[in-house]
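[#protein-structures] MJ: dropping ABC transporter substrate-binding protein here for a structure pass
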Amino acid sequence: MASAGCSSKSTDNSGGGGSNLTIQPLVQVDGQGKEVPAKDTTAAADPAGDGKGKCAPQTIAMAGPLTGDNANLGLNIIRGVKLALDQHNKANPGCQVTVKEFDTEGDPQKATQVIPTIVSDPSIVALIGPTFSGETKATGQILSDANLLSLTPSATNVTLTGNGWKNFFRGLGNDGIQGPAVAGYLKGTGKFKKICVIGDDSDYGTGLAKTVTEGLGSIADPSCAANVKAKQKDFSATVSKMASAKPDGIFYAGYYAEAAPLVSQLRDGGVTATFISDDGTKDVEFTKQAGGKSKDALLSCPCGPASDKFTAAYKAFNNYEPGTYSTEGYDLTTVVLKGIEAGKVIRPDLVDFVRNYDGQGLAREYKWGSTGELANALIWMYQVK
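AK: finished. structure tokens for ABC transporter substrate-binding protein:
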């Protein structure tokens, strides 16, 4: 979602779930965890443009989890992509752009079968994705070799931009920013004396757990650090460890499919420590699956709350509220559309267009450095209420 130009009263009910709890924004922070006021984004790039766009019919792709345990995170993105395309196509009858959807289930192995299909389709000029860090790591070289523009709205592992891929651009802050920012915020509140860090075994969870632990310093107790696995459902050993450690905070680095049963079992086991997690958990499915046991959880994200105007348009088009990464999907599609309208309709030209792009989006300013990292990225803190 958008890390600027947002109402502090907005809520995140991504996916249209049934929980009466909502994920509400608290504060935007910099890399040290200090509060930063949200920017006005009324001048954000509009996918509709001036309505004078001319192009032969074009096709882009989106790749990510559209089914599976963490499907909502991919569905949030594709709905943002489709909204941008709908607004563009309605305004520009002389330049029609469509999207082909590819389901990776967020699985690196599945992605290695899906991405070559995208690369070998000559009609596809750009990719929104991959979505998760693990699948991006597994397929980045394939995309780079094909020089197919890869704009990720969500993959945050720090190492992804260190592989020499010239076609890869990250549309939000990475875990090297998120970890210290969250740690700085938690330390700055003065509420936490002892935090246990739990990480899952994904590239995302492993990397974020490391940067959060380093940022917390002496507040992170290494004796109660723990690791869990993707698709794990029984966390009794971890709960026992947390109950013995008696921390006042638990940071979980991973996704909502494991975070929901983990927090539920922690509460059932009498562990009352504040549950803190990340953008992988920041989804309505977390509050739906954990119910009242998710209440008061703190969640960080390199994404921010959607503006009222975007929320209304997104909901009218998709019949869902925008969720985590919805605005990133919308913004990055808009960037590609600007390139297509500028006549950049072959793969290398679109890569060059994005490399030199500098424009305001709903989420943030999009301007990239030589490695594909944003020139400026901030983090938002949320709370389940």
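MJ: nice. Residues 342 and 362 are 21 Å apart (CA to CA).
AK: one more thing. DSSP finds eleven helices and 14 strands in the chain.
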